[in-house]
């Protein structure tokens, strides 16, 4: 796979355009890797790969589930970032985007005569981020899905009737990382918690108590669909997320407990979804979120991009001597035929215990130093990597990632809580971080301690 990609890229410099620079580690064996332009998390492979991160220019690490560079294009930092990327793509090059965007597509068109686009056009990719359209189409193919209905803002009385049967979930059409998801338990909460958007409707479904959140990566090739690692997704872990359903990581070892019939159903449905994507000229890696509820696998959403699980999944693939999702994506875009892969049930039976936890800053003030946290994490038994930590001098806004820790251990059994050892570690996170938090001007010590 490496040889095929290297031959197709030829003398082009391969540039990563992502959210986290650390995510390119799995393709470091490609000799063409020559630069990284990301929003957070500098990765320089000891200085061998020049990198520029937006947070280096702004001095702030934002909450990437609510902040987008496209909303800040008129800032001096965005202009400098864009100019640097344009200059880096001035020669024979190829840009690999974590997620296509209007920001990157504009640059790619301005460099079309010399730069190869290794992703989708942003407007094409945006089609697959509209959740109601995607889940309706997938449901029409016979894939079981979460029973969302779509309710206009003016018709909230329909939802009040649903609440008589128990809690419900509200969801906007476009969101990521758990943003835009709201649980409502009582009719009195409905008008206050209703998320108003220009579309003037939201998705509504009964809250599925006890559902196990699952995630899997796959790749669409011109002649097939392959799958990589399945995982239990970590959602809304206290001390690690600012949102009740915020993304916090993945546990790959826990899927070994799933019944073979469930794994077969996942494989069958993900292949259907991949073929559907190809029908709309989609090529490359994608992700699928699922819920296992009362023995039934329910489709939740497609992630038409790389995912938060990509780095950990790629490490597992590399250690097994297999191609990772990033290499698969590159090979598919460059025209290779789909490789043969083992059935999902066989691959998952051999998946070792491995998980990673993404720790977000939950304080109201801006975090100044992640050093105490990263030092403590590295001392924990079984930890094999701590990365994406904010650099000294960069302030972490509420919801921003403070660090990411990977371990050769299991972290969860249900996706919403941690195993006892990791729960004990997570309870110390606010204490480790609070001492580095910036005090608000004029606040009293007692008030500051209570907030943290």
Describe this structure in words.
There is one protein chain. The protein is an alpha/beta fold. It has 16 helices and 19 strands. Strand 11 (212-221) and strand 12 (224-235) form a beta hairpin. The longest helix has 20 residues, at 260-279. Mean pLDDT is 92; it is low at 439-452.
Can you tag this structure with a few keywords?
8-stranded antiparallel β-sheet, 5-stranded parallel β-sheet, single chain, alpha/beta, globular, 31% helix, disordered C terminus, 16 helices, 452 residues
Low-confidence parts: 439-452
Taking all residues together, what is the mean pLDDT? 92
Q: Write down the overall geometry.
A: globular
- Cα gyration radius (Å): 22 Å
User: Whole-Å distance between the termini?
Assistant: 49 Å
The computed structural class is alpha/beta
State the helix count: 16
Number of strands: 19
For the biggest β-sheet, the strand order reads 15-14-11-12-13-16-19-17
Compact overview of the structure:
The protein is of the alpha/beta class and 452 residues long.
Task: List the SSEs and their pairings.
Blueprint: H1 2-9, E1 13-20, E2 33-40, E3 51-53, H2 54-58, E4 60-61, H3 76-88, E5 93-97, H4 102-110, E6 115-117, H5 122-126, H6 131-140, E7 149-152, H7 157-163, E8 168-171, E9 181-184, H8 187-193, E10 201-206, E11 212-221, E12 224-235, E13 247-251, H9 260-279, E14 284-293, E15 296-303, H10 310-319, H11 325-333, H12 344-349, E16 355-360, H13 371-378, E17 383-387, E18 395-396, E19 401-407, H14 420-427, H15 429-434, H16 445-451
Parallel strand pairs: 1-2, 1-5, 2-3, 4-18, 5-6
Antiparallel strand pairs: 7-10, 8-9, 8-10, 11-12, 11-14, 12-13, 13-16, 14-15, 16-19, 17-19
């Amino acid at each position: 796979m490496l040889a095929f990609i290297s031959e197709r890229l030829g003398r082009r410099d391969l540039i990563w355009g992502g959210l986290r620079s650390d995510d390119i580690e799995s393709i470091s064996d490609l000799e063409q890797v020559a630069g990284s332009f990301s929003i957070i998390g500098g990765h320089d492979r000891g200085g061998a790969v020049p990198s520029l991160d937006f947070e280096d220019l702004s001095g702030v690490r934002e909450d990437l589930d609510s902040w987008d560079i496209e909303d800040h294009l008129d800032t001096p930092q965005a202009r400098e970032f864009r100019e640097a990327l344009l200059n880096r793509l001035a020669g024979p090059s190829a840009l690999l985007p974590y997620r296509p965007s209007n920001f990157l597509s504009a640059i790619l068109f301005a460099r079309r005569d010399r730069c190869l686009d290794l992703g989708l056009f942003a407007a094409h990719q945006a089609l697959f981020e509209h959740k109601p359209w995607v889940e309706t189409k997938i449901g029409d193919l016979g894939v079981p899905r979460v029973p969302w209905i779509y309710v206009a803002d003016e018709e909230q009385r329909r939802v009040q009737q649903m609440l008589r049967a128990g809690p419900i979930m509200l969801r906007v059409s476009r969101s990521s990382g758990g943003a835009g998801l709201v649980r409502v338990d009582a009719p009195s909460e409905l008008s206050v918690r209703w998320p108003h958007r220009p579309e003037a409707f939201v998705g509504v479904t009964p809250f599925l108590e006890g559902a196990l959140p699952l995630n899997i990566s796959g790749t669409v090739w011109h002649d097939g669909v392959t799958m990589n690692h399945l995982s239990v997704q970590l959602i809304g872990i206290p001390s690690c997320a600012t949102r009740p359903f915020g993304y916090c990581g993945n546990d790959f070892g826990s899927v070994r407990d799933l019944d073979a019939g469930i794994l077969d159903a996942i494989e069958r449905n993900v292949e259907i979804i991949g073929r559907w994507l190809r029908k709309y000229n989609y090529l490359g890696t994608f992700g699928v979120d699922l819920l296992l509820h009362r023995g039934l696998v329910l489709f939740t959403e497609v992630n038409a991009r790389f995912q938060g699980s990509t780095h950990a999944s790629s490490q597992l693939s590399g250690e097994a001597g297999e191609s990772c999702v990033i290499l698969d994506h590159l090979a598919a875009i460059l025209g290779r035929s789909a490789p043969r892969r083992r059935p999902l049930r066989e691959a998952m039976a051999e998946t070792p215990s491995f998980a990673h936890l993404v720790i977000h800053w939950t304080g109201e003030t801006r975090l100044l130093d992640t050093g105490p946290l990263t030092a403590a994490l590295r001392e924990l038994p079984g930890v094999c990597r701590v990365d994406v930590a904010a650099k000294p001098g960069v302030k972490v806004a509420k919801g921003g990632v403070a660090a990411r820790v990977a371990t050769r251990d299991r972290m969860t059994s249900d996706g919403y809580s941690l195993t006892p050892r990791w729960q004990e570690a997570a309870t110390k996170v606010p204490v480790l971080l609070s001492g580095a938090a910036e005090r608000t001007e004029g606040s009293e010590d007692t008030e500051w301690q209570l907030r943290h």
